[in-house]
Amino acid sequence: MKISFDNRATDKEKYIWNMLGSLSNAFSSLIFSIAVNRFFGSNSGGVFAFAYSNSQLMYTIGTFEVRPYQSTDVSEKYSYDTYFWMRMISCAIMVICSIVYAVCNPFSFEKTAVVLCLCGYRLMDAFSDLLAGRFQQKDRIDMSGKICFIRIVFCTIAFMMAMIISRKFLFSCIILLAASVIALWINEFRVVYVEDRRKYQFDIKKIAGLMTEVLPLFIGSFVMMYINNASKYAINSIYSDEIQNIYNILFMPAFVINLFSLFVFRPLLIKMALYREQKQYGSLLKIILKMYLMIVAITIVAVVGSALVGIPILSILYGVNLASYKIQLLFIMSCGGISALMTFAYYCITVLRQQRWLLIAYGAAFLVALLITRSLVKTMCINGAILAYAVSIGIIVAIFSVVIFTVIIKQMHIQNKNKR
User: CB of 295 within 8 A of CB of 307?
Assistant: First the structure.
């Protein structure tokens, strides 16, 4: 690759740019949602929320969940060429799946077009994630943060300007897609892949090997994204876009817990991978325990804050009266803490190279979500959606935690036994 990794960044620079990248990525959907509600009303807000959730599911196909494996592949078992072609294949599959899903569902023309625009927007993110993973693999999360921050800020400005000038919902989504293509070309693709003029070696055996290794990660991530969206799909088929919008608004603050957790543990992934390579399981266990406690603490603070000012702030931001949904918000914030634990535990499973357990945990949660979500949503509406989500992710956290601590404690026991 043309880009050099020799110039090292300070820990402060890594933290700041990683934070900016994570913040921009997390808050872009929040800003988009608020803007759509303000400019076009609750009905369009519900359409956008559903379309964006679906694009997240398609994004999982595009990335094929290679990033966690790539970023912790410190010994470079697979070359960047292999990761490159793997991503091209997965993104092609994402395009096909997005078109088939949008066309085969009985949506209105506008809803179909919005779904396709947002899937296209996330397709550009999937391309960009490849280079970001390479930077993270080389312990340059400052560069991956910069890439993310520049692209998302540019796209957000373009989307907002389109809404202000045109006052057309679909047209604004088309501009968002166009801006994401332009940002990817100028910021990354032109510099890294065109001007570099290097041919990337296509080795089908290595690509197949990588795909086999990350397949459990992909299946787990895809199923998890489905579980996240299952309640939204049920609401979409039973209730109005306005109900979808309210559910989405209430869920938005919960991602703040995940966001702050990511700030802390994403920079630790390389260190955790090195501890695994060096078989320093005691040090690895300490990091994991500290993160569990930190996520619990962040969740408590978030729940208390939501109880005090959550509903008034959300009502003002979105222009929607949410006064009767305070209890639901507190439950959702608690779910946000469980979700953050699940995300961290997922990365721990990846670092420990115990991917096979992902299939078991996500499979169990998927079956539960499939069995209970629609009936709970139908009988309890938003309350049922929250309960179904909480039960599903709670199962995953329980299984992941048992696996993580069992594997580490077993390895520590073996090491102590060998010392004797």
Answer: no
Checking if the pLDDT of 207 tops 70, the result is: yes
Residues 216 and 355 sit within 8 Å (Cβ to Cβ):
yes
Burial of 297 (0-12, 13-18, 19+ CB in 10 A): exposed
Return the exposure string of 298-332: e unless at least 16 CB atoms fall within 10 Å of the residue's CB, then b: bbeebbeebeeebbeebeebbebebeebeebbbbb
Q: What would the pLDDT profile of 364-391 be if each residue is shown by its tens digit?
A: 999 999 999 999 999 999 999 999 999 9
Question: pLDDT digits over 280-326, tens only?
Answer: 888 888 988 988 998 899 889 989 999 999 999 999 989 888 989 99
Give the residue from 224, 216, 207 showing the smallest Cα distance to 90.
Answer: 207
What value does the CA radius of gyration of the chain take, rounded to a whole number of Å?
Answer: 21
Report in angstroms the alpha-carbon separations of 91 from 223, 248, 321: 18, 27, 40
CA distance 70 to 89: 16
- Residue 376, φ and ψ in degrees, nearest 5: -70, -40
